[in-house]
Amino acid sequence: MSAEKRNALGRGLSALLNDSESVNQNQNHNKASVLSEPAGNNPGSVNEIKLSEIEVNPFQPRTDFDQQALAELADSIKLQGLIQPITVRRLNAHSYQLISGERRFRASKLAGLTQIPAYIRSANDQQMLEMALIENIQREDLNAIEVAISLQRMLEECSLKQEELGVRVSKNRSTVTNYLRLLKLPPAIQKSIRDNEITMGHARALITIDDPAKQIYLHQHIIQQGLSVRKTEELVREMQRSPIKKEGKQPEPISFQVQKIQDDLASKFSTRVKLKIAGQGRGTIEIPFLSESDLNRILEIMDW
Hints:
Elements: H1 3-31, E1 46-50, E2 54-55, H2 67-80, E3 86-92, E4 95-100, H3 102-110, E5 115-121, H4 125-138, H5 144-157, H6 162-169, H7 173-181, H8 187-194, H9 200-207, H10 212-225, H11 229-241, H12 256-269, E6 274-279, E7 282-286, H13 292-301
Parallel strand pairs: 2-4, 3-5
Antiparallel strand pairs: 1-5, 3-4, 6-7
Helix pairs in contact: 1-4, 2-3, 4-5, 5-7, 6-7, 9-11, 10-12
Protein name: Chromosome partitioning protein ParB
GO biological process, one term: chromosome segregation
GO molecular function: DNA binding
């Protein structure tokens, strides 16, 4: 991710943090007589807070943390200290909740720190969720599916429209739409994107194919042949130009239940699967393969 993009996203998060302070300014003023601020813990400034007084953000969309990377960060913190403060909100006089910086928080614990530098902000639950999701989207190591899931959560859980979402994360509407469309791909293809087997460019080409079975078939071909994005786009165009044969007797339309079984089997085997029902509970299942190694892969899935 370029420095320019990182700065743009950072402005979105900063704006949200500033907005949260404005929204809660009156509430904080009203609570001042009930809750006194401990000396040195001033909202907006960097404060040293006990790690034992901080709880993780329940809205954090990130669940997996690379343990080796955490250990390396902890070693760095031992030598140089924590350079970038975390951000928290105050729950009460001696209790805080993370807004951003859970990786730094975890590494500081591993490093044996008892206190950590932190910014204290004011935020309600929806703002906490937005901040956590925006911070997640800013991560450089985030794959396209993780970005798409975070964007979808912001739409659904923060009640945002796509235009508003684009403003929050400093992305135009078409970019947001392209990410969200990835979630309509079959699970096997989404997993392949998440595992970096195919790129966002491959996925955008596959999205233009309407038939999930064809998507899965071409997806497997991409992996088997190591196809480039350009070659994938050419195959998609060729597939879409191919005339549909109408000679002879047309097959009976399949039911929703049969289509669902076909789609589930196609996702499981990462290839096109055809289910033929002959009546009276009889039928056949066809599972094509591209090569001997592809056959072995399918047999392994069948635990043969």
